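Shape matters. Shown next:

___
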Amino acid sequence: MIVAADDPGLQDEVVGLLSRLIRADTSNPPGDVSAAARILEQYFRDNGVAATLIGERPELPNCIARLAGGGDGPSLLMLGHLDVVPAEATEWAEPPFSGLVKDGYVWGRGALDMKNQLAAQAVAFVRLARRAAAGEKLRGDLVFAATADEETGERCGAKWLLQNAPRLVRTDFVINEGGMDMFHVGDRRLYTIHAGEKGYAACRITIRGRGGHGSVPLHRDNAIQGLAHVIAAFERHEPEVSATHLPAAFIDRVVTDPRLRERLKDPASVHAALRDLAAVDAGAAATIEPVLGLTFSPTIVRAGGEAVNVIPSHAAVTVDCRLLPGQSAEDIHREVARALADVEEPWGMELLNFMPGSESPAHSPLRDVIAATVAELVPDAEVICGQFSGFTDSAHFRSAFPGVVAYGFCPFIVEGAATIRPRLHGVDERIAVRDLVLQTQFFERLATRLLA
């Protein structure tokens, strides 16, 4: 990893900013990000950069800064969100909102998702502003945006910003969260740019049965037992695979067994092949499976009544659904029907919300610049394009600005996908200081290469 010998303050600057951002508890719900937004605003102001706080509600501001270029180059938005998922402090080895620096790591909720990237982008932005003040002006505009409410996505964040103040964040290119996975392939490192991402929907499956007294079991009309059959059916189901979205480039580079590679690239055999792959490389299997097509994850179970001696007459499970770009609500209905075809109990389905998947072109100047910058910082690296199994604010930007190229990418060098993934939305979230420094260097050099 490259760290400029004449810049010993880089690590202290970005580590200090990340620690302060983590100490501002922005758990969503409730989603109050105002303290973190003010930390960024003050950081920019202390470094001679004007920042704007704008939002529909005081507790949900978005922080925007712009570094004007010469006007004859493309423009780039460095995007991230301020809110984090809640953390159960009793489960953590260190307090989740401490921002503790210990044993070469910065600890706390948001250290990976995604206050690390916000801190790295903010410091990169300020360093470029310092250079511009010294005469090294960029040709194109550089914009920084830290948004509210990405984790639930319903209030005042990127979606609100694009509807109410789009001029503040309109650019040719966007780099956002995603692309965090690093895989060791032989003596090389493999990175994936997320050029597209899956859409999101939630559906509720309801079973209606016959209520009664708990002392008299209802073996066929018990809604709770029927719901158990629904959940078990989702667990067994193998969704239809999209041949056009098979991650062939990833499979070719990560899977060494030629026969297994071919089975993984065949929609008819991929599910069985994934089970074989998981036995030898669980991380690779977990990367491939979510991007094959629709996925269903039961997450919330509720039943009518609170009394233990009453069999409820109805029960429901809420299911997290993720769909590929181009798939529709009709595809969800069809796949749910396939999954529950053998459930004997009558069931009903309600689609609670729907956000389609989206993608940007896999080939663009931004991809070329990302690859060149990674190669400069990590000489043994290879970069490919792929799909992200999650949902990010990039989808809102692709919808608002059809010509924009929005990618998810944030490189790591110390820790790979298998180590990082369990901490995302999990316990003991933390980032290696070396990775945080690398990310700061990456964003500074990326913007320089693209805009200068």
Summary: The domain at 196-355 is CATH 3.30.70.360 (Alpha-Beta Plaits). The longest helix spans residues 115-133. The first strand starts at residue 51 and ends at 54.
